[in-house]
Write a sequence for this structure.
């Protein structure tokens, strides 16, 4: 079993194309199924720890993988039973069925086992499965101690994260060949549990991958505050949001954070933050490596003027919060400078409209249309670059659903951008740091805690 971090993410169509290319190069479909099934069996052996296993097999290739796995488990004296729904539909699936020399339990007579393996449908499902099938699956899942899905839990559409039925939650999903979008996109991602890759020996590429430990900038003996990155935070109507962004930028490693605000007599964050009154000229300092604008900016004429000044400054931008409500998405395409947009779902819909397309597809289209890196935030954050490169993140802490955490993310990304990372790298590093800080904070944290936790994560 291989962890998913850093691995390519393939749609169902792309996976079929990769398999077809492997077969055109001389690998047979039977060889691919054998590798998948035997890899699944080895994973089940490790996870089951000797407890009896029930494998539920469907009529397609997912069921074929299940039969190969069950036969391999039986050869290794692992207690295993098989139940099947329907007859195998392809020659390869029939071959896999022939490997199993034990009884096949009737679907209506299935008795649960401590370890459940769902090999019914997997990748490629596009419509709701028969409720009779799902009723048995749910009953066996409810009774199992450990629930393992082959490729995807049955009832999930593989590309858009849609649930096509009432899908039980699994503990582990064994992705065959490649990680699929629905392993990471909600609401499907909440059903898959831990995702582990089963290598079936075919080359996998493409421009989409799972996030991994990023390359983080670190100071050396020659570093100084400006070389580590100067971040300017443009404040507005709600000063607390800009304070959070400024604190996060500093805690994430920026060498100099400039907080630009007209207000006086407000509660201040760290004394290390440099505070000056805002003027349009203050944004033209060539030492500024990134401008963060939007957290608490407001939506009045003053806010519009400040956004216009930031866009005209020529400095790299992180555009968040209120600024995303003020700007026209298509106007961003004419802005040549570096831009990272960080919308949550509501801000994204305001800028780009609603759509039935998948979250990664929407993010890619938005990035191309605006010539920006787009961080489409949420429990299933997806980052897209204008050239189509896409980064998926595993499910984030649900405790991030509290006010101010988006401001912390904007400041964190600003620090990475100011430190010299390219925009896609900066966005990935910022989201990774943000998620790791949330993990360390545990439960019921507030945004201030999250910003402070960034120092420990950088350490």
């Amino acid at each position: 079993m291989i962890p998913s971090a850093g691995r390519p993410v393939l749609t169902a169509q792309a996976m079929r194309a990769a398999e077809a290319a492997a077969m055109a190069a001389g690998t047979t479909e039977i060889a691919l199924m054998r590798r998948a099934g035997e890899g699944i069996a080895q994973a089940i052996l490790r996870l089951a720890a000797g407890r009896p296993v029930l494998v539920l097999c469907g009529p397609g290739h997912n069921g074929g993988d299940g039969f190969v796995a069950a036969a391999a488990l039986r050869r290794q004296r692992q207690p295993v039973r098989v139940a099947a729904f329907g007859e195998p539909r392809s020659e390869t699936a029939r071959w896999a069925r022939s490997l199993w020399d034990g009884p096949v339990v009737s679907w209506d007579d299935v008795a649960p086992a401590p370890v459940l393996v769902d090999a019914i449908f997997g990748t490629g499902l596009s419509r709701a499965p028969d409720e009779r099938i799902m009723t048995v699956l749910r009953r066996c899942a409810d009774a199992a101690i450990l629930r393992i899905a082959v490729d995807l839990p049955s009832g999930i559409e593989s590309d858009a994260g849609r649930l096509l039925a009432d899908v039980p939650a699994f503990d582990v999903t064994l992705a065959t060949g490649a990680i699929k979008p629905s392993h990471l996109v909600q609401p499907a991602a909440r059903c898959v549990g831990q995702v582990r890759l089963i290598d079936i020996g075919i080359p996998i590429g493409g421009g989409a991958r799972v996030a991994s430990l990023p390359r983080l900038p670190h100071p050396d003996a020659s570093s100084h505050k400006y070389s580590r990155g100067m971040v300017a935070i443009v404040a507005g109507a709600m000063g607390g949001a800009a304070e959070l962004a400024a604190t996060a930028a500093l805690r994430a490693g920026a060498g100099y954070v400039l907080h630009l605000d007209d207000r006086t007599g407000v509660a201040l964050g760290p004394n290390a933050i440099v505070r000056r009154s805002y003027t349009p000229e203050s944004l033209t300092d060539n030492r500024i490596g990134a401008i963060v604008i939007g957290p608490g900016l407001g939506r009045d004429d003053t806010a519009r003027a400040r956004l216009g000044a930031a866009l005209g400054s020529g400095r790299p931008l992180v555009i968040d919060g209120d600024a995303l409500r003020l700007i026209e998405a298509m106007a961003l395409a004419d802005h040549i400078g570096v831009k990272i947009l960080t919308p949550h779902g509501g801000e994204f819909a305001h800028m780009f409209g609603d759509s039935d397309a998948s979250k990664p597809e929407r993010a890619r289209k938005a990035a191309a249309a605006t010539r920006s890196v787009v961080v489409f935030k949420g429990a299933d954050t997806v980052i897209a670059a204008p050239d189509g490169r896409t980064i998926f993140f595993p499910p984030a802490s649900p405790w991030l659903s509290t006010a101010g955490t988006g401001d912390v993310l904007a400041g964190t990304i600003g620090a990475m951008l100011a430190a010299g990372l390219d925009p896609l790298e900066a966005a990935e590093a910022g989201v990774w740091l943000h998620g790791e800080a949330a993990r360390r904070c545990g439960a019921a944290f507030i945004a201030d805690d999250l910003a402070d936790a960034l120092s420990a994560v950088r350490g």
The first strand starts at residue 2 and ends at 3. The chain has two domains: 2-210, 230-458. The chain has a mean pLDDT of 96.
